[in-house]
Amino acid sequence: MKNYITFKDVKKVYKMGEVEIEALSGVNFSIDKGEFVVVAGASGAGKSTVLNILGGMDTASSGTISVGGNEISNYNNKELITYRRHDIGFVFQFYNLVQNLTAIENVELATQICENPLDVHEVLEAVGLGHRKNNFPAQMSGGEQQRVAIARALAKNPKLLLCDEPTGALDYNTGKAILKLLQDTCRNMGMTVVMITHNLAIAPMGDKVIHVRNGKVSSIEINENPTPVERIEW
Ligand SMILES: Nc1ncnc2c1ncn2[C@@H]1O[C@H](COP(=O)(O)OP(=O)(O)OP(=O)(O)O)[C@@H](O)[C@H]1O
């Protein structure tokens, strides 16, 4: 589906007492269903603000955001909760797992609040953790914990998978394996994936690369033939 997501003239102003910070100053882009999109830019450019607004964790000050034909910029708080719960899977830099629950329990916890969850065993197999289901986070490496976090997001069967620097805390090879998992998930499940990075070297893996600078989109690249992660070096 073309233009599954659209941002039209989206602005975000944070007010801190007397001071106003314009984090987004008129952001425009569109994303098709099933695209793997990389949002790239320097620290403070506005990447997380874009992702948080798209995921319904924050709201725009003005402008229109539409996802799958719904104007989420008009949603009230209750509608945003439902949207986050059913439509969005989030993956963060630091995995945010519940430490006293096993891998499978962490994934099950997320599926308990959503409508059409996937089979938790199958999802853990798919992320390569079939043999670690009963381990606690402290018994797993960073890369394995991030796989649990990805399984937790995917098991909700979300419409959108949003990833904020998902490899930021991982070493080179582990990070690469996680990027491959995300790219393969996008292809195999037809999942729309939006991933933030400050690492421009991995931009060629995206079907689309949205460059953000000073709260604006500075350019958008379309890669007709995205590079498989295993062929990217940085
Ligand atoms: N809750 C907030 N209150 C006030 N200012 C904020 C808030 N969140 C973000 N900002 C400001 O908005 C601007 C954009 O921040 P944002 O976190 O979106 O950038 P970023 O590109 O994701 O950066 P990084 O790569 O460092 O995470 C920055 O100037 C930041 O200080």
UniProtKB/TrEMBL annotation:
Xref: SUPFAM superfamilies: P-loop containing nucleoside triphosphate hydrolases
- Which of UniProt's keywords are assigned here? ATP-binding, Nucleotide-binding, Transport
Please indicate which superkingdom the organism of origin belongs to.
Bacteria
* InterPro entries assigned: AAA+_ATPase (IPR003593), ABC_transporter-like_ATP-bd (IPR003439), ABC_transporter-like_CS (IPR017871), MacB-like_ATP-bd (IPR017911), P-loop_NTPase (IPR027417)
Which Pfam families does the entry link to? ABC_tran
- Which residue range or ranges hold the ABC transporter domain? 5-234
Q: Which GO terms describe its molecular function?
A: ATP binding
- What family does the database annotate? Belongs to the ABC transporter superfamily.
Q: What is this protein called?
A: ABC transporter ATP-binding protein
